[in-house]
Amino acid sequence: MPETITEPSSVDDVVAGLRSVGYLPGSSTALVSYLAIKLGKPVLVEGPAGVGKTELAKALARYLGRTLVRLQCYEGLDEAKALYEWNYKKQLLRIQTEAGETGWREVQDDIFGEEFLLPRPLMTAISSPDPVVLLIDEIDKTDQEFEAMLLELLSEFQISIPELGRIEARTQPVVLLTSNNTRELTEALKRRCLYLWLDYPETEHELEIVRLHSPDLDETLARKLVEIIHQVRELDLKKPPSIAESIDWARALLLLGADEIDGETFKQTMSVIVKHRTDMDTVAARVGVALQQADAA
Ligand SMILES: Nc1ncnc2c1ncn2[C@@H]1O[C@H](COP(=O)(O)OP(=O)(O)OP(=O)(O)O)[C@@H](O)[C@H]1O
Ligand SMILES: [Mg+2]
Question: Which of 21, 150, 258, 278 is most exposed, with minimal Cβ within 10 Å?
Fold first, then answer.
């Protein structure tokens, strides 16, 4: 449970704060995060897999000293799993206990009270007494109906429950929605959000991220690793390696005690960064062979 609540007063504060919790933001990341906190607007974070979309929400929660409430989206996700459900078992028990003694009307009023609600992530975020960071992860996996339901929440910060009425947010959450772009999101949703496009970082930025995660890796080796990753990304691949792969590769090399990325090391560890059969062939032919030639020279 986080102890101290932080409130940034400049973009630089956000940069320093995110860094202090192990997230190295690019300049637009820090700016958009600052605006989101100050304007109370949700952020839609898009970009390829493994570039730090989910981690940004986690890092913001750590930095701001807020609890992270996460809704992982998937196909078929419905309100009952995202917002709230009635606790049928508890309702039934109450009905059975009170049967005979009380009239139906009283029991009915009773069993549709807050006590019988099972809050799911969206409701938890809205009703929390302390402000939270709400992560709605991989929103593109849900359907448009679900998006429509989110609109009320994102614009008004309130939820309507037919039996109970409106539940308004007690505190303003910082909301991040992430998407891998597997489908186009509706304009209505986009209009309500600030937009952050996260891409693969520049060499120096990625080097810093890799070194943060693997401080024991030799600097020259880390630089070579990042340069190779950037070369591999230039190729026409099904799945280019992301920051996540760079970090994994650095850890693997460290574990194996490698002191150089030569042709042989590359061949052995390539599967850490390339994860499609056809991509393997392309990368071996273009990058692997070049490394072997450099070894021979
Ligand atoms: N700017 C950064 N600073 C520090 N670590 C980072 C940064 N960006 C990414 N990472 C690291 O990269 C890894 C992948 O990040 P994350 O899981 O957030 O990616 P993602 O964009 O959510 O991917 P996916 O779309 O597959 O869910 C994590 O281990 C994260 O810590
Ligand atoms: Mg993610």
Answer: 278
Q: Name the closest ligand to CA 243.
A: 1
**CA-CA-CA-CA torsion sign (214, 217, 222, 228):** negative
Atom index in ligand 1 nearest the CA of residue 180 equals: 25
User: Measuring from atom 6 of ligand 1, which residue has the nearest CA?
Assistant: 52
Residue 236 corresponds to which tokens in the numbers above?
């026409």
- Residue identifier of the C-alpha nearest atom 20 of ligand 1: 50
226 in ligand 1 pocket by Cβ < 6 Å? no
Residue 25's contacts (CB-CB under 8 Å, 6 or more residues apart) are 14, 15, 18, 19, 33, 56
Ligand 1 pocket check for 180: Cβ under 6 Å:
yes
**Other residues' Cβ atoms within 10 Å of the Cβ of residue 87:** 15
Residue nearest to atom 7 of ligand 1 (CA): 52
Kindly list the averaged pLDDT for each block of 10 residues, start to end, along the chain of length 297: 77 97 97 96 95 98 97 93 92 80 72 89 93 96 90 84 86 94 90 96 98 96 97 96 97 95 94 95 91 84
Across the chain, the runs of DSSP E, i.e. the strands, are 43-46, 68-72, 84-86, 117-119, 133-137, 158-161, 165-168, 174-179, 194-197
The answer to whether the predicted template modeling score (pTM) of the entire model surpasses 0.70 is: yes
Q: What is the DSSP string of 215-230?
A: TTS-HHHHHHHHHHHH
Closest CA to 190 of 139, 225, 145: 139
Cα–Cα distance between 229 and 208 in angstroms, integer?
Answer: 14
Question: 55 C-alpha vs ligand 2 centroid, how far in Å?
Answer: 7
What is the distance in A from the centroid of ligand 2 to the CA of 49?
7
